[in-house]
Structure formats: structure tokens, C-alpha cells
Amino acid sequence: MNFETGFAGDSLQAGEQQLARRRKLILIAGLVVLALIGLAVWTHSGSSGESSSIGGDGVLPRVTVVKPGRSAVSTTVTATGTLAARREMPVGVVGEGGAVSAVLVEPGDWVRAGQVLARVERSVQAQQGASLAAAIQVARADARLAQNDLDRASALVSNGFVSKADLDRRTAARDAALARVRVAEAQYNEQQARIGRLDIRAPAAGLVLTRAVEPGQVVGAGSGVLFRLAKGGEMELMARLSESDLASLSEGDQADVTPVGGKQAYTGRVWQIAPVIDPQTRLGMARIAIPYHKDVRPGGFASARIVSGTAQAPVLPESAIQNDDKASYVYIVNAQNIVERRDVKIGQVSANGVSILSGLSGAERVIALAGGFLSPGQKVEPKADATGATRARPAQ
Predict the structure, then answer these.
(1) Is the CB of residue 101 less than 8 Å from the CB of residue 177?
(2) Nearest to 220 by CA among 120, 131, 124
(3) For an engineered disulfide with 382, which of 65, 72, 101, 241 has Cβ 3.0 to 4.6 Å away?
(4) Tens digits of per-residue pLDDT, 330-346?
(5) For the whole prediction, is pTM greater than 0.85?
(6) Which residues does the UniProt record annotate as the domain YknX-like C-terminal permuted SH3-like (predicted)?
């Protein structure tokens, strides 16, 4: 009897504990549900408040707009190309050649017109010249003898001691002797000219670019170019341009040339514009003359910025320009304060801003900043930038 009573009491106590745990779990679950509902309500109310502050019902985004007008801007063309001597002068062997006895210049030296660059050995030619000089003396002696003979015959012909025919023969002998003198002199002068051509000389004043000869080297007419000179030291950039860019240039346009790897730009001028276009590449060449400078090296690569004139165009801050896969564009605000997209073609970029070549007249109200957060068709509240600064206030 006591055993049964104890067993029933234990069962009742276990049931009460299980019921208490169940009630506790239900209470915790209810608290969690209430917390989630409160969080959702708070989040929704916060999002609604933020949306209202940015541009909810009745509140429009305020943007800063500028009217660019039209300003005088420089029309520039950029190009790249190869540096070269404006007038390159290849110098080789003019005469018969021979063994080089001396080379008198190095690359980078300045030379004057006619200056000797190298000498070819001439001992044989010198002896031939001496022989011809002696032949002149012999011919002159014969000519003097013939003249004296003629003079004596002329004095005796009036007395009848010398016939007229004999006088004619002596005159002919004198004339032949004088002709032989002139032949000997011409042969001597020819030899001297040949000897002079053994000196390899600069055809004009300029800068020595390359040297391809050494003492002891045997040179001749087939030896090729021994020296290359830049006439006057003038260099040029052979810039390749598209047809449209080439059409906008004129001879005399100023250009700033910057060699690759250098920071300094050198001022030059367009001196020649190609009369033809390459049918394969559709490019033409503009040649820009540059004064000599040690950093302007022929064969190098350089870029050029060519100023081809001035034009009237709108100028916008860089922050107003947007880009996508289609084109560059800006957002303008129309008369109803609605955002419109306007595709533009941009020109020169400078410290003053970006020039607009086409797409704007200058009278539009252009959104100066934060255009990336707007979309066409959106209504905004425009605010003019009275200072012309490139700033805009985001929507409040």
C-alpha cells in the first residue's frame, strides 16, 4: 500500500515539472516574436524617413546647375610618331677611295660646311700629281722656244730671208706648244681634284649623327654611307594622324613635342602636311620641325600636342561629364525641371574644364555634379551655381 502511494506521487510531480517547462518555452517564443515585429516596424519607419529626406513624396532632389555659355578654347590635336633629322645628309666616298688614314669627327660633333670628316691615303695620287706638274713645266718650255722661234722668223720675213710659208709653220708650232701647256695644266688640275676628293667632307654645316668608318678601313664607291649628318642640327617629329585631324591642321601651327621617357616638352611648328593618305592605315603624316636639343634623339618615339587654332565652345567641369558604352553625355535640366540626357563630343581637357565640341549650345542648364545618381525623366530642384565653381550639393 505504501509503494503504490509513493509511485503515484512521483508521477504527479514529474507532470507538473513538464507543464512548467512547456509554459516557459511558450513565453520565450512569444517574446521573440514581439521583438521581431518591433524590429520590422522600426526598420520600415527608418527607411520611409530616409526616402523622404532624399526625395520622397513632395521632396525633390536639389542639384547645382551651370550655364556654360561659349568661350574661346584652343583646338588641339594629339599625335604620336618617330623623331628624325629634318634634313638627314648621308655622306660616303666620292672619289676612287682607298685605305682610310684618319677619322676626324665623332657622333655628336658639330661640323661646318666643307669640313674634312675623314682622309683617305693618297701617296700614289700625290706622285701622279707631281709628274703632271713636271709635264706642265716641259710644255711651257717648249711653248717659250716656239714663241722665240716665231719672233725671230717674223723679224726676218720682211727682208726675204724667211718665206711666208715658213712663218706659218712656226706660228702653228707655237700654237701647238701653247695647247700642250693647257692640256698639261688641265691634267694636273684633274689630278688635284681627284686628290681632293679623297677627303670625305661635310656637304653642309650640321650635327654628326652616326659614324661607320675607322682608320685602316678600305673604302670605295660601294662602301655605302660612312657618316650621317643632320643639316643645321634640326630635328622633326613625323606624326601620323587620321584624315579628320590632318584636315584641321595648317602649316605653321605650333606644337609641343615630348619624347618618351622625358618630362620636358619642346616647342616646334608644323612645316609640312602630307599630300596623300596611306590607303591601308588611312593615316597621313604631319612633320613638325624642332630645334636641336640633346634629349631629342633621331629614331626615338615622342608625342605631340598640336594647337590648330581657336574656336568658341562650351566649357564644363569634368564632374559634369558622364560616360557609358554608347558615348560621353551630360544631364541637363529642361524648362519643366526634368532631367534629360544629352550626348556630347568632348574636346580639349584643361585646367579650366572640358570643352564640348558638339551636343550643347551653351545655353542649357547642365547638372554640374552627382549626375550619376540621377536618371532621365526624374524631376529635380535646380540651383544655379552663382560662383561658377564645379561643386554640387547632394539631395537633402
Answers:
(1) no
(2) 120
(3) 65
(4) 888 888 888 888 888 88
(5) no
(6) 315-381
